[in-house]
Design a protein that fits this description.
Helix content is 68%, strand content 3%. A 3-stranded antiparallel β-sheet has the order 1-3-2, with helices on one face. The longest helix has 30 residues.
């Protein structure tokens, strides 16, 4: 196999390994309702299960990484994923709480073995100019596995008996066989007697601060992961629906991230990066409103039909008044003005008329395509729309947009 092909195949397999490692690590939220039912556990005892898994899957990672680097324990690549896969799948078969904790601890240990080793191997295999890209792909694979597990496990439990959960361990074992065939476990991570420690990590204020921030972030995330499925099941949602909603929550990790660099680079990204400009965190009340909206849509299409009628009416009347309207099939209508300063003046004048809209201009939209963004809803009456249209016509004539 050519060197370049070996690099691509190796990074692909290691990314798949990260996918399955995080995939098995996130079985627990979907399995907790099963544990509670089978062993009659309280919420406190259920939370302790997550704590024990976190000890071996997270807190042990630095220790595992230290010894993997020090002694070149590359062969542990053949142990980590099978350990996670087999024991988390066996956990649903445990007849008592101590055995359940034991299987969870061993499963978490497999996660701690793979993560530092997998990231070291990616760094070692990738060419120096492409290491950032390779690591991004590797991390993305883990995030997707982390997000998909609750939905997949929930649907599996609904469709099959929980005794068959061991079948989900098979992909991880097969992947490990490919690791062996490609001899990834034979790669020497660090040459003997070349490890040099210039700085002790715990003396770095920046590294300690970053770890504290990550700890607080994980605190909130793990709490949601653990108790959201329980909350939903206890309030009448099916198990698979609870797992699916948790997957939606976790998918954000697969499409998000953060960037560090010099101040000039960060400032440039803030002005030019579309993912930054259009990234907004969702408050709990918005999430609750979205869930309620889906419930209403399942009952009737009345509001959806009314929304389409409102959009059609508004667009038609605005075109009659000679406004330039971008074609749309959504509730967002763009009134094109093509001038950044004019869009801000127009929005301000409309606010004086009692109409709240937003003027968009570069870099939020392409240069020279400034516009007024109008958000319509099913809650708008015909009187509301007529008032808005009249205000647009008045301000449009005043600012010379229409005759």
């Amino acid at each position: 196999m050519y060197v370049s092909q070996f690099r691509i195949v190796s990074i692909t397999l290691l990314t798949a390994g990260h996918f399955f490692s995080d995939f098995y690590c996130t079985f627990l939220p979907a399995l907790i309702p099963v544990f509670m039912e089978n062993l009659n556990l309280s919420l406190g005892a259920s939370g302790m299960i997550v704590m024990f898994q976190s000890i071996t899957s997270n807190l042990l990672q630095p220790l595992c990484g230290y010894y993997i680097d020090k002694y070149n324990f590359s062969y542990l690549l053949l142990i980590g994923i099978p350990l996670s896969a087999i024991f988390i799948c066996l956990s649903v078969l445990m007849p008592n709480y101590p055995l359940l904790i034991a299987t969870v601890l061993l499963s978490g240990l497999g996660v701690s073995l793979f993560h530092p080793l997998g990231s070291s191997l990616v760094h070692h295999v990738a060419k120096p100019p492409n290491r950032g890209l390779a690591m991004s792909v590797f991390i993305g694979g883990g995030n997707f596995g982390f997000a998909l597990a609750p939905a997949i496990v929930s649907y599996w439990l609904v469709s099959f008996d929980h005794h068959s959960l061991l079948w989900l361990a098979v992909p991880g074992i097969i992947l490990t066989i490919f690791f062996y065939l490609l001899r990834l476990h034979k790669i020497e991570l660090v040459r003997r007697n070349t490890i040099q420690v210039n700085n002790v990590w715990y003396k770095s204020k920046d590294i300690v601060s970053l770890n504290i921030i990550m700890g607080l972030r994980s605190w909130a995330q793990v709490a949601i992961m653990t108790f959201l499925p329980l909350y939903l099941v206890q309030h009448g949602y099916k198990t698979n629906s609870a797992g699916e909603l948790l997957t939606y929550f976790l998918t954000g990790g697969a499409i998000g991230g953060f960037t560090t660099g010099r101040k000039e680079i960060i400032e440039m990204l803030r002005q030019r990066s579309r993912p930054y400009l259009f990234s907004n965190s969702i408050p709990p009340l918005v999430a609750a409103a979205a869930i309620k909206a889906f419930e209403l849509l399942q009952e009737t299409n009345e509001m959806q039909d009314r929304l389409h009628e409102n959009v059609d009416y508004f667009v038609a009347k605005m075109k009659e008044a000679n406004f330039d309207i971008k074609p749309t099939q959504s509730a967002i209508c763009a009134v094109m003005l093509y001038d950044a300063k004019l869009s801000q003046e127009f929005a301000s004048a409309l606010l004086d008329e009692g109409i709240y809209v937003t003027g968009f201009y570069y870099p939020v939209v392409p240069k020279g395509e400034a516009r007024i963004r109008v958000q319509l809803s099913a809650g708008h009456t015909r009187e509301h729309l007529d008032k808005a249209i009249a205000a647009f016509i008045k301000v449009g004539k005043k600012l010379g947009v229409i005759a």
